[in-house]
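INTERNAL AUDIT FORM
Audit reference: QA-55
Scope: verify that the stored structure record matches its stored sequence.
Auditor: D.O.
Record contents follow.
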Amino acid sequence: MKILMIGGTGTISSAITRQLAAAGHDLWLLNRGTRKNEVPAGVTQIIADINDEQKVLDLLGENTFDAVCEFIGFLPSQVARDVHLFKGRTRQYVYISSASAYNKPAANHVITEGTTLANPYWEYSRNKIACEELLLKEYRENGFPITIVRPSHTYCERGVPVSVHGPKGSWQVLKRMMQGKQVIVNGDGSSLWTVTWNEDFARGFIGLLGNPKAIGEAFQIMSDEQLSWNQIYQCVANALGVEFHPYYVASEFLAATSPKEWDFTGNLLGDKSVTVVFDCAKLKRAVPGFQATTRFDEGVRRCVQYILAHPELQIEDPEFDQWCDRIIAAQEQAKRSI
């Protein structure tokens, strides 16, 4: 197939890029070229800002595609731009939405593609919902061949998934663990969560490309493994070879006391603090044989080994570290004062 990926070098899309290239597809990437060294041989790269529509049209020329995959569309205006650019140029337009668009908390903790979309806590998620609605309208009224994909917490070797971290990523949480310090965990750590290795996600995603059962439909792609946050953090500590010292704080308190730009209201109250179990039966019907095979304890061990071997990924976040210490001290003081 001839496939165009808008993005193609991020956490989710990099695995898809590698697998499509290895399978011999005619793969094109449209992005700003900031990770050119990570693009596999044989992939055609268009280096441009997609918001410069005329330049993109000039670079695309007369090319048409079997599938166009949008990984960096966050606003309805960006999706509307894509419809303008690719209407009549592709047999399938695949939009990466988000499982955070599902209502939190949902009426049923088992989430399917039919679960209501609504998130009063997170503007990011509401924008994803608006993008989906725009695309569905284009499909229903004009036949624009859409497929919507809703990933949840997908990770790769460049970052360890944790629930509470600062704007510079998870390294400071790992460093606190290695220093023997307490690590903040939202709630009591017992809510269930799903994390998915990006290579597993990629296999499900690729199975939807060129798939007639995918047109006009939405799919979620996740592992079937559900873990509590306590189990997730314990796996991280095991991979580091250290003891896990959790310190439990209510998600509402974390959201109220963190800097606004960290957006714990959205990330925690609108997503990670709520128990969810994803049912991927619809995907498995459309992509027979799909199964996520990477257990989290295996995947996070790869992450830790990779990050420890790459100092450039060990990004210090002293502001987050100091905030953690203040939160712990404040809660302990509150306990003593009662």
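Auditor finding: record pair retrieved intact. Residues 158-193+225-276+297-337 form a domain with the UDP-galactose 4-epimerase; domain 1 fold (CATH 3.90.25.10).
Action required: none
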